């Protein structure tokens, strides 16, 4: 009987121990569940903050992208305007350059044409000089064979005058007059050369003689030319008191 009671006592103690262990396990489970709940809540809060941070970062990036897009568009407009201005300036510069080149070409063409004309005149003058020299030489040869020819002296005088040899021309006109005192054209030519040499009185005398001979020979046109030329020759007349007055040397020759 006592053994049964002892066994029952041990069984009761075992059951009590099991109950205590179960109670402790239950308490641990409850505590663990509470910790899990707190951890989950913290994790959710952290994820929310991360999400909000990502959203803010995205928004900032989007704003940055928008600003960059606006700047690019603004720069694009400015670049287009700059390009248009550059094209306009380039077009104007090209027009000015073409205009300047055309003006330069026209000027050079005009200068070349003028130079060609000048060279042609020089060539013609040179040909005339050569021709006159040949004529003078031929007349000189003729005069060696016929020294009494007034006409040869007159023609050679004309040749000397064309060559600018005024002294030689006056001498030959004088020789022609010596051989033919009625050669009006020799007086006329010599009178003009005297006038060019500022020998006005001699010029008037020769022109008067030429006019008279022209009139006698019926050459009225040449008469008027010589007459008018002599009437228009001016000179300074010095009076006895030393006062100089201008006068027309030939004004009374044909009155």
Automatic annotation (TrEMBL):
Protein name as catalogued: Tetratricopeptide TPR_1 repeat-containing protein
Signal peptide boundaries: none
Gene Ontology biological process terms from the UniProt entry: receptor-mediated virion attachment to host cell
TPR repeat intervals: 150-183
Record keywords: Coiled coil, Membrane, Repeat, TPR repeat, Transmembrane, Transmembrane helix
Residues passing through the membrane, by range: 7-31
Coiled coil region boundaries: 109-146
GO CC aspect terms: cell outer membrane
InterPro entries to which the protein is assigned, alphabetical: TPR-like_helical_dom_sf, TPR_rpt, Ycf3
């Amino acid at each position: 009987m006592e053994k049964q009671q002892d066994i029952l006592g041990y069984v009761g103690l075992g059951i009590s121990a099991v109950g205590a262990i179960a109670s402790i396990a239950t308490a641990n489970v409850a505590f663990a569940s509470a910790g899990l709940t707190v951890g989950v809540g913290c994790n959710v809060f952290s994820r929310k903050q991360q999400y909000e941070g990502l959203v803010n970062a995205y928004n900032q990036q989007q704003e940055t992208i928008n600003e960059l897009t606006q700047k690019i568009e603004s720069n694009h407009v400015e670049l287009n305007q700059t390009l248009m201005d550059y094209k306009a300036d380039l077009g104007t510069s090209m027009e000015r350059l073409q205009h300047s080149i055309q003006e330069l070409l026209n000027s050079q063409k005009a200068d070349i044409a003028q130079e060609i004309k000048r060279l042609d005149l020089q060539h013609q003058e040179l040909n005339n000089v050569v021709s006159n020299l040949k004529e003078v030489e031929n007349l000189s040869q003729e005069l060696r064979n016929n020294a009494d020819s007034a006409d040869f002296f007159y023609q050679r005088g004309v040749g000397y005058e064309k060559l600018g040899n005024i002294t030689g021309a006056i001498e030959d006109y004088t020789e022609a007059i010596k051989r033919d005192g009625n050669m009006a054209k020799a007086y006329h030519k010599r009178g003009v050369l005297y006038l060019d040499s500022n020998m006005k009185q001699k010029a008037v005398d020769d022109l008067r003689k030429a006019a008279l001979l022209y009139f006698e020979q019926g050459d009225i046109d040449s008469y008027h030319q010589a007459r008018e030329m002599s009437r228009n020759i001016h000179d300074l007349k010095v009076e006895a008191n030393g006062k100089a007055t201008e006068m027309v040397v030939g004004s009374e020759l044909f009155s």
